[in-house]
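Weekly structure sync, notes
Attendees: PL, DS, HV (note-taker this week)

Item 1: LLM class F420-dependent oxidoreductase
DS walked through the input record. Source organism listed as Kribbella deserti. Sequence as pasted into the shared doc:
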Amino acid sequence: MTVELGRFGVWHQWHKWSPELAYELEQLGYGTMWLGGSPTADLAAAEQLLKATRSVVIGTSIVNMWTANPVELAASYHRLADAYPNRFMLGVGIGHPEQSAVYSSPYDKITEYLDRLDEHKVPVEGRMLAALGPKVLKVAAERTAGAIPYLTTPEHTREARELIGPDVLLAPEHKVVLEIDDDIARSIGRPYVEKPYLGLTNYRKNLRRIGYAQHDIDNGGSDRLIDDLVLHGTAVDISDGLTAHLEAGADHVVIQQLGHTDLELLPGYEALATVLF
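Item 1 (cont.): predicted structure, written out as tokens:
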């Protein structure tokens, strides 16, 4: 089994995807449509997008290990993989301690969950793991097709590639705003970064790990931090920032456009497609 993600994909909250949006993005050349948030274990939302498209890959980013039963998830995986060969990538992860009352021993949870997926024959090459820090990146490299880091920079991508080696998929997400005015762009991007991510322990630790000072992270994030985490400018400006991930070792870059919803997203993704492809 081989799932080809393409060079660039699109991230959108799973409950906000529409078949029409997925179809149009496929026509523009994007390789993978990622269902963000915590899609349910029945994978019905992914199935809907698979039905609406012809060849694009549909991925989850991510199914939450704390809320999705692994047995049900495995059965759903096989249903989609059988019906749409090489077109579905199962992304799983553990979410955030602040958002789960039962969150404990995250490393053990990851390994136990992957054990259950193994038992139910979900292939290593058909699944990816949300990973930021070195320990979980190593698990992603050893037990899945690769890592899907979220809210990162090319510097993190470079370090992750060095850690996991050359033969593991690496697909970081990056937010973008198609706006040339710095203040307007930051006013759009900052709320998406500040709440909830700058209040979550794992993201704060990761940002410190890759070189940001505490004052960059506190109080809504410094302009430097927001500009790094939310690329803005023209389509050409943004494409340079996205391509920097590929140059740093990414195989696939997941784009999340901010400031618009539903089919309003299409003009921005079309503008990016003209310079990315």
